[in-house]
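Render this sequence as a predicted structure.
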Amino acid sequence: MAAVEERMNSNPLVQPLLTDFYQITMAYAYWKSGKVLDNAVFDLFFRRNPFQGEFTVFAGLEECVHFVRNFHYSDSDISYLKTVMPSTVDEEFFTFLRGIDGSQVTLSALREGSLVFPRVPLMRLEGPLPVIQLMETSLLNLVNFASLVATNAARFRLAAGWDKGLIEFGLRRSQGPDGGLSASKYCYIGGFDATSNVLAGKLCGIPVKGTQAHAFITSFTPDEFPHVGKLQPVDKSQEPRDFYPVVCNWLKKVTPVLRVLESEVHLGELTAFSAYAVAFPNQFLALVDTYDVISAGSQDRFGRFSLSIKTYQAMPVKGSRCGHEIDTFGIGTHLVTCQKQPALGCVFKLVELNGDARMKLSQDIEKVTIPGKKEAFRLYGGDGRALLDLMQRCDDTPPSPGKRVLCRHPFDEAKRAYVCPSHVETLYHVYWKNGKICSPLPSLKEIQEHVKSSLTLFRQDHMRGLNPTPYKVSLSDNLYTFMHRLWLNHAPIGELF
């Protein structure tokens, strides 16, 4: 645990001033109204899965824990806030800000890398109302993009299959340095094997891989082909071999199989690939992104392909089901920028204050919140697959294996079913309480393994890319009744004239 507690958040930009200005002004209004000791419970959740899919990978938890752990305003922060807050703000408020931290906050969450679903809170924060309010924007910023990119990466992984290598190549087109680093980190969590981002490799321990730029390919000419150099055998005791006759020999063998003439092979490209193979005899990755792959120089049996793949339904990936010798894909822009859906849409809502449930009402049913401090459980069927996620009030009796439990749709009274689970998983774990980290924060590799194992616990029709089946999210009968009674009590009654 000591080693875990010594870990710091990796991004120096993650600090209390990484927030929206209205969080500061609301905190002042809370302070002015005498609400600084009010105990609040907030839920962080989303309303729809991204990419027209039916699952999301939860990511960003570790950064959130470190943010709460390190939360405090420095003297320079206070000095700056004095320049932007209205002149009518009491000086004592800035003294209040200078003294607050995250020690009175409790953070509970699902394990990072878990599959999560709409309306089920990813995180629950409990503590002083103004303090948690001041954390809202930063926490949303840390979870939204991380979960979106990790989900995108997981969908590419499912499409490519687990037997193929996936390398993230998106740094040069990502949204700035921080976007590039975050994307590399969370693509790895989502199932990618490596990144081209060297700094991400250094900071996060992610394997780094690379191919060649077109500049490298075009810098070689056919005249240089006979002078590609000597290749060092794997057995270092053997003398280096002249690589030129080896390439020529294999060229004669391969061209008939591929039904091309030797004269059609671009010797300049072949020279470039040969030179790169000489430089890296045991770690050769060839960039195959050309006008004519067959006629170019690369005719490896096992090729590492870097392609402009726009979606996980792209033909090169779908081709994995048809049989080919491509063993690695390098994917960049559409992976790290999530062009199909650039934002996840997590929200942060007050659900309880001083023990009383709070509920947001709206004419848009999607925006109605589920009130109160809740627990959540994942119920599994006899085949070991997840059946549904069940939310209930904290004082409800938890579901247990072998016992029937009534599960209700949050808004449709007619949709209900009894479930007799073979296994029940408690979803929330306390990660921060009383100023201490309470649960170990796993390594990126461990989170990646958790994503992989989680993807196997759900039916394939939930995971598929086209027309997936929605996964059920239910309420206990007690929570359903409580929610709808509260709704009726607070919803205004209209009058007709």
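Summary. The first helix runs from residue 2 to 5. The first strand starts at residue 39 and ends at 45.
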